Automatic annotation (TrEMBL):
Family according to the record: Belongs to the class-III pyridoxal-phosphate-dependent aminotransferase family.
Amino-acid biosynthesis listed as a keyword: no
Cofactor: pyridoxal 5'-phosphate
Record keywords, A-Z: Aminotransferase, Pyridoxal phosphate, Transferase
Alphabetical list of CDD domains matching this protein: OAT_like
Pfam name, any one: Aminotran_3
Protein's recorded name: Aminotransferase class III
Listed InterPro entries: Aminotrans_3, Aminotrans_3_PPA_site, Class-III_PLP-dep_AT, PyrdxlP-dep_Trfase, PyrdxlP-dep_Trfase_major, PyrdxlP-dep_Trfase_small
GO MF term set: identical protein binding; pyridoxal phosphate binding; transaminase activity
Length: 459
């Protein structure tokens, strides 16, 4: 069961620094009604999130109505790459709003064209066209359909897709099938028999021959009935999200060779990692991989709902042919204005290079913390300003989820927001605009929280 936080205000020590302010009980008493109203009208994962009612967010800071202020290490959920309420993005949205064009369905607009031109330019040489959608799930569904159509154009039986067990490609039907979420698929009553799942190559096992492991896993799928001649492509999450788990290089190189040999499409889901998050425009650039299709979202606008699929003219034409090239809010003028300003901000402020530099500060600090708490921390994964710290039970060595929830809770009480996953990992993803000083202060708070919970937690 997921850990649920208590929304009853709790007395905590007050905090006042340049980047943090905690001056009330947490959550602040004046925000309790917001939680009650949400519980009354909305059924969702509210209790799994940290008990803070956001009032405003600016750059790398989050505020509630009482004036409490947190260093944000979440970017909401990997969205605010260019910072919360970025001035350039706000102005672009306001300017577009003043033009009295707030929705245009799939009709041509000047702002849509400007955004597309910038996106394609920043994506070269990986594609020369883009399709626009409103969310990451939509983009991944379109990739799924394009891959299927590509194969079936060649041979009606060539509709197979290889994906990875537990990969997170969204919450829609194809995404759940790609993930192999058995609980959800049981409710659907349907599972595409032409989707085949590789076990994820967890890179902490250093003794594994990863090239051999890839080929062995493919052989197991073949033994189970997969026919390589009927596979259209491979869908990869750029890294497995819950633990910022990157593919071992020998494994990914063998995967690329396999795809090339069998003329398979390679599609990469960059929803969580694209637009500079890892110190490169795209995560796949770390692998030396050249995909045929790219799904982007979240940090694409740093604000409003916006996602995209990038690829060749020939491949994206299949989306139009099979009527998956757009949806109601595709290319929304306000979202396109935000997306254009976001890409301009990333480029003009050199945020990708800066993220690589700041990533060194982050990981130097995290590795120092790990070395201090070897009995509690199993792994630290990630690149740039993306990290996951995986905790273990010091008695059994197994994963420890309750401890991570308590660390997230205490850090929040001290003025630092972390990504709560409800499992053994804590994810870290500050806006790429975070200052060096705030990053270092966040590291100090994180270490304090681990230390204090470690002394009181009953394993």
């Amino acid at each position: 069961m997921p850990f649920n936080f208590d929304f009853k205000p709790k007395k905590v020590p007050f905090v006042q620094t340049k980047f943090r302010t905690i001056k009330t009980k947490i959550p602040s008493p004046e925000t309790v009604e917001i939680f009650r109203e949400m519980d009354k009208y909305n059924t969702g994962s509210g209790g799994v999130q940290l008990p803070i009612a956001w009032d405003k967010a600016i750059d790398f800071s989050v505020y509630d109505k009482a004036g409490n202020k947190w260093i944000d290490w979440t970017s909401t959920i990997f969205v605010a790459n260019a910072g919360h309420a970025n001035p350039r993005i706000k102005k672009a949205i306001k300017d577009q709003l003043d033009k009295d064009l707030v929705h245009s369905y799939n009709y041509p607009t000047e702002i849509r064209n400007k955004f597309l031109a910038k996106l394609v330019k920043m994506s070269k040489p990986y594609g020369d066209r883009a399709l626009l959608f409103s969310g990451g799930s939509e983009a991944c569904e379109a990739v799924f359909a394009i891959m299927k159509a590509y194969g079936q154009k060649k041979n009606k039986d060539k509709s197979g897709i290889i994906s990875f067990q537990n990969a997170m490609h969204g919450v829609t039907m194809a995404a759940q099938m790609l993930k192999n979420n058995k609980k959800v698929l049981a409710v659907y009553g349907f599972k595409d028999p032409n989707i085949f799942h590789l076990p994820f190559p967890f890179n902490w096992d250093e003794k594994v021959n990863w090239a051999k492991k890839f080929n062995d896993d493919i052989s197991e799928l073949v033994k189970g009935g997969m026919k390589i001649k009927n596979i259209s492509g491979i869908m990869l999450e750029a890294y497995q999200g819950w633990g910022a788990l990157f593919y071992p290089m020998p494994y990914i190189k063998e995967l690329i060779k396999f795809a090339k040999k069998n003329k398979l499409l390679l599609a990469v889901d960059e929803i969580q990692g694209g637009c500079g998050r890892t110190g490169k425009m795209f995560v796949f650039e770390h692998y030396g991989l050249k995909p045929d299709l790219i799904a982007l979202g979240k940090g694409l606008s740093s604000s409003l709902p916006l996602s995209a699929v990038i690829g060749s003219k020939e491949l994206l034409a299949l989306a139009e042919e099979f009527d998956v090239a757009h949806s109601t809010h595709s290319g929304n003028p306000l979202s396109c204005a935000a997306g254009l300003a976001n890409l301009e901000e990333i480029e003009s402020r050199n945020l990708i290079t800066e993220t690589a530099r700041k990533g060194k500060i982050l990981f130097d600090g995290l590795n120092k913390i790990k070395n201090k708490y070897l009995q509690l921390i199993a792994h630290i994964n990630g690149k740039g300003l993306l990290a996951a710290v995986l905790f273990k039970n010091p008695k059994t060595g197994g994963p420890e989820s309750k401890f991570t929830s308590r660390v997230c809770e205490l850090a929040m009480e001290k003025g630092l927001l972390l990504v709560h996953t409800s499992r053994e990992s804590i994810k870290i993803a500050p806006p790429l605009t975070i200052s060096d000083a705030a990053l270092r202060e966040g590291l100090a708070v994180f270490e304090e929280s681990i230390d204090e919970v470690g002394k009181s937690h009953k394993f």
